[in-house]
Structure formats: structure tokens, C-alpha cells
């Protein structure tokens, strides 16, 4: 027995599970007589709630009053049902046992068949692999041969090319060597020159730098000196300019006085029998000697009111004003003086 | 002459002034005295002219002529520095005539001979240095040369002393002795124009009427003289009044009113004595003749048709055109210089005022508005000024500027009447009363200078200044 269990653990397990399930079914009271238990055909030992199809779910529970007889009747009925179910259960367990046996047999047969098929399949596969390996071996052999051939050829060509290449290389190498030597020589020479040049340059640069430094210093010194001189000069110039401006201003005012004095004297000497417009006006340009003698009088820029008589009288007034008043300072003397005359 | 003024003056001729003493009158010669001059008259040297016959040259003494010396110092000075006289005396002191003319203008102050450092007669003789201290700007020098047979040569040089150069120089040849005075006037005109820019009016004539009493008779003389009162010539003598002489534009004829026939009549008389025509002798008043600028027409005041009105007479045909038709008195018409209108005097507003009538439309407009009495209009040759007798308290000469409507009273003399413009428009000759006698006076249009012309033994009225004698 134990040996059987050991040999067929799955079948034993399954049968235990089946027993448990059946026992469960027999212990649970089903309020709903119409409920059908659906047994998994695949022999699953777990019942998933979702797989329970509740056909009356859509109908809500209703409560109503029943009388005792009716309940008795109902109970009677339930008891009968229970009895029937017990019977059915027994029947079912017998049937199950039978089924289990059949299944066991079936499994056994299936296993043997499976082992047989496996064996045959394995064999076939071995055969196929063998053939494949054979084929591969031949192909590889051929490929190997071709490769060897090609390689030989390639080797040959390579050797040939190598030969030429070697030759050329040899020549080139000789040439290059020569060239290289030459250029090396040249480079050496150039390097020599360059070095010399560089040295010279460096020396020059050094010298220049020194010179530049010197120059810079000199320049700065000069600049400083110049700036100082310029400042001095500017200051001096400013002072001079200021003095000159002051003097000029003074002179201008003195000159104004001088010219007004002349103009006033001419006006004092103005007289004419002619009827003159009070609007008459001319410029008088007097040329005089340093002693104030009039050498010439020019009447210029007259307006339209200045008649011939006015001009004549103006000119005469200038001559009558001899000597022309002296300037307040000698340097203000002007040989030619022009002023606006309005009597 | 205005009837209003006549009436007025006759009633009031009773003032006697005894400020000046005059020597007894010997002959009727106009004497001119300068009563007022410019304050700033210009000093000028009019050096006596040299007089030459053959090689001799002398400067003539001044004061030989009949002009009454107005400044005693002047006659005194002659003793001091008269230049040497030659035996032959010059027929006329030209320089003296020129100096008097310039002095009379009021604008010049001729240097006294005695003040002159020398008497140069040519440019080379002038030492300008000598003249400078005398404060003169100009100097006239000249020569009168006897060319024989009563003819003379006149040389003149007008010098600028300040600039030491000649301004003007002119020579007249073969001048008859009687024309020398006219040459002097021409020289005066040249100098005046050079210095003032205005043509001189010295070489012009004036007409006037003198009245002398001989016993109980009055003697009226219409006279014409040089503008300086010399060379007076009687044109008409009458024992009856002569009034309103009017010069023809050519200066050759006079129109005037004469009462010689016991009533007013208008005559035209040529000055050369060739003819005398009676042109208006209508019933009633014939007065105030005035020549049109072209000399072809006379404006007249006639009352032949009732009241006194203005008429125009064509001188040749004697045809009349009546300009005014009023019950009032319209008189004393004068022509505008353009000949297109006349100014006249009318009392149509109650008091005499000056009106203007335009010949093309006979439209009349009032011209004078200043005061209650404006009569006897006279227009200046340039048509700008209207002189008139202006009555306000007295009667004086008023001047209305027609350009600006400015009105000025020019004179302060007594009972002024009959204004008459000098042909250069610078002066107004008019009649006035002084010492109870009628005299003439001249006033500058700016009122700055005046002079009085009088006759010693009579009265002088009704002046009229003649036109320029020479064309320019």
C-alpha cells in the first residue's frame, strides 16, 4: 500500500483531495436547492469564488410570513432531499472510485505511451543530429579545402606582392634614407642657422628690449618734463591771456571813449544852413596824422535821408574839429577812424 | 486884398512905436532890415572883389549903395582895414550885395571886412592858415574887370576853406553896368544853393504898392524892385488906390486892381511898358486877379451877378466862367500849382475860411479849420503849404501844411496881410503895420528868420513876390 502511495503520489494526493472535496460538499447545507455545484473538470482543488455562478443574484430576498405547517412541510421536504442527496453521494463516491481507477489506468497508459514517444523522438533527434553533423562536417571539410586553396593563392600573391613591395620598399628605403639623410643634413644646417638666428634674435631682442626700456624711461622722463613745461607754459599763457584780456577790455573801453570824444567834437562842430532830416545818418572815416590833423574825410554808408548838404556839412564838421582829440593812451592812436555820425 | 482885413486895419491904425529913429525921408526906396536871424547862422567870408582896369587891381569899399546900414559896427570897420583904392572906383561892390543877400536870408553871418586878414582875389593869394581861426568854412573871392564901353567881366570863385579847394567858379563876360547887381544876385543864388541845397531866390523881383501923402492927397505907386529892394521902378502912379498886383508866370506882366476911374477895375500891364489892358470893368466889384499857372487865364472876383463870386477869365478871349454861385462873399482866389483847382476865401459859414474848388467837378471843400478867421490864401510853389491871414486876437500869417494838416502861426507882427511866397518857397513876403504905417516883412516858412522892408516916407502894402527870372 505504502509502496503504491510512494509510487503514485500524485494519484494518491488527488484522490485525497477529491475525498476532502466530497466531504466538504456533504457537510455544507445548501439553502438554495437550485444551486448547482460546478466541479472543475480539470480536477482543480481550489474553488474560485468568481467561478460560482449565482443564477438568482438578480432577484432580491423577500421576507414573508409562513405558518408552522408550511414550515413542517418544508422541513419534511428538506429531510427527504437530504436523504436523496446522501444516496446520491454514495453513488457518486462509488462512481468516483471507479473513475479514479479508470483515470489511474489511463494515466499509466498515457505514461507508457509518452515514454515510448519520447524514446522515439529522442532517437529521431539523435539521428537527425547525426546526419546534420555529418553534412556539416563535409561542408566544413570542403570549405576548409577551398579556404586552404584560396589561402595558398593569397599567400602566393601576397608573397609576390611582398616580394615587389620589398623590392620597392628597399629602393624607397634607400631613397628615403638618402632623402632623410639629406634632409637631416639640411635640417641640421637649418637648425644650425635657425639657432644662430634665434640666438641673434634673442640677442637683438634683448638689446631692443634694453633699448626700449631705456627709451621708455627717457620718454617718460621727457614726457614728465614736457608736461611740467606745458603746465607751466599754460599757466603762464593763461595769466598772459587774462592780462591781455583785461588790457584789451580796458583798451576797448578806452578806445570807445576815444572815439566818442572824436564823435562828440565833430558833433560840436556840426553846423549847416541846410534843412537836414533828423533821421540823416552816415559813417565818417577820418584819416589823421599823429598830431590830429585831418588828411582826409570819407562819408560812407549814408542812409536815404542824408543829402549832399548833409554829407558836405559832416565832412566840414570833421575838418573844423582839428586837431582831432588825442587818444587817452598813445597806443590807441588810429590813423584811420570810422564812426557813425548823426548830428 | 481882403475886404475884411481892409476894414479891420483901417479901424485900428493908431499905434505909434518910437523904438527907432529914422533919418528924414528923402526918396522912396525900400529899405530892408533883418529883424530876426537864425541863432546858428553860418559864418562866411565874402571877400571884396578885386577891380581891374589894365593892370591895376583894387578891392572896393563896401557901403557905397543906398542900403541903410543895420549894424553900426559894420560901417566903423571900413576905416580900419579897407584895401587900397585905385583912382577908378568899381561901379558896384558885388561882394557887398552878395553879403547883404546872404545875411538877409538869416542863415549866414558874413564876416566883417575889418575882420578879414587879407583880401585875396585869386586862389594863389589865399593863405588858408590865416582864415582858419576865423571859424569860416567858405569864402567867396572874385574880380570885376572893366572891359571898356560900360561892359564888365565878373569872375567868382567859391572856396572851401577847410578842404582848401574851389567849390564853384564862374565867369560872366560883357556885362553892362546896370546888370552887375543882377550878377551879384546870381552869385548869391549859386552860393545859397550850394550850401543849402535849395535854389536861391535873390535874383527875383517883388511888386508892391506905396502910398505917400502929399498935402491932403494920397499918391499910390505900383512898383517893381529887386528882391533886396533895390532897382525900384514905378509901374503905375495914381491918386486912387491900387491893389492886388499879381505876377504872370513868365514874370513879364502884372495884373492888378486900380480905382483910377472911381471904381474897381482889373488891368493887365506889361512890365516893359508895351501895353496896359483893362480886362474887367463889370458892374460892382472887380478884384483879386490871379494868373493861372499856364498864364492863359485869370481868376477874378466879380459881383456883376449879385454877390461877390469867383470867375475865370480867358485872357485872350475875355470869356468868363463862373465858379461859385452863392449869396455869401467868395473872393481872393489863387490857383493850385497844377492848375486843376483854386483856393479861395468864403464867408459862407459866417466867418471867412479857405475853401478849394475843383475845376473838373466844381466840387467845393473847406480847407482851413484852425480858428475863426482864415482869409487871403496863398499857395507855395510846390503846392504843399497854404499861407493865409489868420485872425485870432490879431491878424497874423498862418501856414497850413496840406500834407500833414499841421497849422502854424509864423508871424508876431501887427495886422498882417497879403502873404506871398518866394519862388523857392522858403520865404513869405507879407504886409503888416508898424508904427501905424504899412510895411512889408519877410518870414521864413519855418518862422526862424524875418526881415522888414520899408519905405522911409510912406507906406508900403500889397506885396507880390515874382517868379524866378532865369530858367534852371
Describe this structure in words.
The complex is a heterodimer of chains A (343) and B (472). Chain A is mainly alpha-helical and 343 residues long. Helix content of chain A is 70%, strand content 6%. Chain A has a domain at 269-341: Fusion Protein Consisting Of Minor Coat Protein, Glycine Rich Linker, Tola, And A His Tag, Chain: A, Domain 2 (2-Layer Sandwich), CATH 3.30.1150. In chain A, strands 2-1-3 form a three-stranded antiparallel sheet, with helices on one face. Chain B has two domains: 3-34 and 202-468, TolB, C-terminal domain (Neuraminidase), CATH 2.120.10.30; 40-196, Rossmann fold (3-Layer(aba) Sandwich). In chain B, the strands form seven sheets. In chain B, strands 2, 3, 4, 5, 6, 7 and 8 form a seven-stranded mixed sheet that branches. A five-stranded antiparallel sheet of chain B has the order 1-31-30-29-28. In chain B, strands 11-10-9-32 form a four-stranded antiparallel sheet, with no helix packed on it. Classes of the chains: A mainly alpha (343), B mainly beta (472). Chain A binds chain B through residues 271-275, 307-309, 312, 315-316, 319-320, and chain B through 38, 40-42, 105, 107-108, 135, 137, 160, 162-163, 195-198, 446.
Amino acid at each position: 500500500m505504502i509502496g503504491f502511495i510512494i509510487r503514485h503520489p500524485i494519484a494518491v494526493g488527488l484522490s485525497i483531495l477529491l475525498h476532502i472535496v466530497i466531504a466538504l460538499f456533504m457537510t455544507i447545507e445548501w439553502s438554495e436547492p437550485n444551486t448547482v455545484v460546478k466541479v472543475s473538470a480539470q480536477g482543480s482543488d481550489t474553488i474560485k469564488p468568481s467561478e460560482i455562478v449565482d443564477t438568482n443574484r438578480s432577484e432580491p430576498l423577500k421576507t414573508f410570513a409562513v405558518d408552522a405547517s408550511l414550515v413542517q412541510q418544508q422541513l419534511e421536504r428538506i429531510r427527504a432531499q437530504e436523504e436523496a442527496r446522501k444516496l446520491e453521494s454514495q453513488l457518486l463516491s462509488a462512481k468516483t472510485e471507479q473513475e479514479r481507477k479508470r483515470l489511474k489506468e489511463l494515466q499509466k497508459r498515457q505514461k507508457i505511451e509518452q515514454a515510448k514517444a519520447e524514446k522515439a523522438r529522442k532517437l529521431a533527434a539523435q539521428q537527425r543530429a547525426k546526419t546534420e553533423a555529418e553534412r556539416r562536417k563535409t561542408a566544413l571539410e570542403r570549405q576548409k579545402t577551398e579556404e586552404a586553396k584560396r589561402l595558398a593563392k593569397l599567400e602566393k600573391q601576397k608573397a609576390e606582392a611582398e616580394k615587389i613591395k620589398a623590392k620597392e620598399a628597399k629602393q624607397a628605403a634607400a631613397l628615403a634614407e638618402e632623402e632623410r639623410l639629406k634632409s637631416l643634413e639640411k635640417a641640421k644646417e637649418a637648425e644650425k642657422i635657425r639657432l644662430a638666428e634665434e640666438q641673434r634674435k634673442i640677442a637683438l631682442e634683448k638689446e631692443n628690449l634694453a633699448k626700449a626700456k631705456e627709451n621708455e624711461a627717457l620718454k617718460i622722463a621727457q614726457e614728465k618734463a614736457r608736461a611740467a613745461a606745458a603746465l607751466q607754459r599754460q599757466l603762464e599763457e593763461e595769466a598772459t591771456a587774462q592780462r591781455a584780456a583785461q588790457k584789451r577790455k580796458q583798451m576797448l573801453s578806452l578806445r570807445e571813449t576815444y572815439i566818442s570824444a572824436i564823435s562828440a567834437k565833430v558833433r560840436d562842430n556840426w553846423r549847416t544852413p541846410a534843412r537836414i532830416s533828423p533821421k540823416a545818418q552816415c559813417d565818417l572815416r577820418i584819416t589823421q596824422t599823429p598830431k590830429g590833423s585831418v588828411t582826409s574825410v570819407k562819408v560812407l554808408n549814408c542812409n536815404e535821408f542824408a543829402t549832399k548838404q548833409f554829407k558836405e556839412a559832416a565832412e566840414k564838421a570833421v575838418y573844423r574839429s582839428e586837431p582831432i582829440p588825442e587818444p587817452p593812451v598813445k597806443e590807441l592812436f588810429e590813423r584811420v577812424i570810422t564812426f557813425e555820425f548823426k548830428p | 486884398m481882403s475886404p475884411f482885413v481892409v476894414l479891420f486895419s483901417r479901424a485900428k491904425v493908431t499905434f505909434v512905436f518910437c523904438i527907432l529913429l529914422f533919418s528924414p525921408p528923402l526918396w522912396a526906396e525900400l529899405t530892408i532890415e533883418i529883424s530876426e536871424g537864425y541863432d546858428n547862422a553860418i559864418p562866411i567870408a565874402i571877400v571884396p572883389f578885386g577891380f581891374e582896369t589894365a593892370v591895376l587891381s583894387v578891392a572896393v569899399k563896401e557901403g557905397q549903395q543906398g542900403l541903410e546900414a543895420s549894424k553900426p559896427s559894420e560901417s566903423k570897420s571900413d576905416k580900419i582895414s579897407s584895401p587900397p583904392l585905385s583912382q577908378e572906383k568899381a561901379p558896384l561892390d558885388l561882394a557887398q550885395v552878395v553879403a547883404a543877400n546872404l545875411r538877409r536870408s538869416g542863415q549866414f553871418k558874413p564876416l566883417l571886412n575889418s575882420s578879414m586878414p587879407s583880401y585875396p582875389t585869386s586862389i594863389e593869394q589865399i593863405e588858408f592858415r590865416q582864415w582858419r581861426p576865423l571859424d569860416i568854412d567858405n569864402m567867396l573871392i572874385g574880380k570885376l574887370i572893366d572891359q571898356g564901353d560900360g561892359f564888365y567881366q565878373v569872375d567868382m570863385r567859391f572856396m572851401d576853406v577847410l578842404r582848401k579847394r574851389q567849390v564853384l567858379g564862374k565867369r560872366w563876360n560883357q556885362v553892362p553896368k546896370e546888370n552887375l547887381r543882377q550878377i551879384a544876385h546870381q552869385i548869391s543864388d549859386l552860393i545859397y544853393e550850394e550850401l543849402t541845397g535849395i535854389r536861391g531866390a535873390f535874383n527875383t523881383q517883388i511888386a508892391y504898392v506905396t502910398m505917400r501923402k502929399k498935402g491932403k492927397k494920397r499918391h499910390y505907386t505900383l512898383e517893381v524892385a529887386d528882391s533886396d529892394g533895390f532897382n525900384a521902378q514905378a509901374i503905375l502912379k495914381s491918386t486912387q488906390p491900387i491893389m492886388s498886383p499879381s505876377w504872370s508866370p513868365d514874370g513879364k506882366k502884372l495884373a492888378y486892381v486900380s480905382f483910377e476911374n472911381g471904381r474897381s477895375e482889373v488891368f493887365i500891364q506889361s512890365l516893359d511898358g508895351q501895353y496896359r489892358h483893362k480886362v474887367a470893368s463889370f458892374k460892382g466889384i472887380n478884384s483879386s486877379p490871379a494868373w493861372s499857372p499856364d498864364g492863359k487865364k485869370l481868376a477874378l472876383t466879380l459881383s456883376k451877378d449879385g454877390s461877390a463870386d469867383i470867375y475865370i477869365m480867358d485872357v485872350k478871349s475875355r470869356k468868363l466862367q463862373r465858379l461859385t454861385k452863392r449869396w455869401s462873399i467868395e473872393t481872393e482866389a489863387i490857383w493850385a500849382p497844377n492848375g486843376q483847382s483854386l483856393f479861395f476865401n468864403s464867408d459862407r459859414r459866417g466867418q471867412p475860411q479857405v475853401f478849394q474848388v475843383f475845376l473838373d467837378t466844381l466840387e467845393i471843400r473847406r480847407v482851413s479849420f484852425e480858428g475863426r478867421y482864415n482869409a487871403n490864401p496863398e499857395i507855395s510853389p510846390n503846392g504843399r503849404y497854404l499861407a493865409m491871414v489868420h485872425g485870432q486876437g490879431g491878424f497874423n500869417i498862418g501856414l497850413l501844411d496840406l500834407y500833414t494838416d499841421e497849422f502854424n502861426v509864423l508871424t508876431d507882427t501887427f495886422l498882417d496881410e497879403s502873404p506871398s511866397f518866394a519862388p523857392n518857397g522858403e520865404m513869405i513876403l507879407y504886409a503888416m503895420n508898424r508904427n501905424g504905417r504899412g510895411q512889408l516883412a519877410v518870414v521864413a516858412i519855418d518862422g526862424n528868420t524875418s526881415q522888414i522892408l520899408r519905405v522911409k516916407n510912406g507906406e508900403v502894402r500889397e506885396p507880390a513876390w515874382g517868379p524866378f527870372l532865369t530858367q534852371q
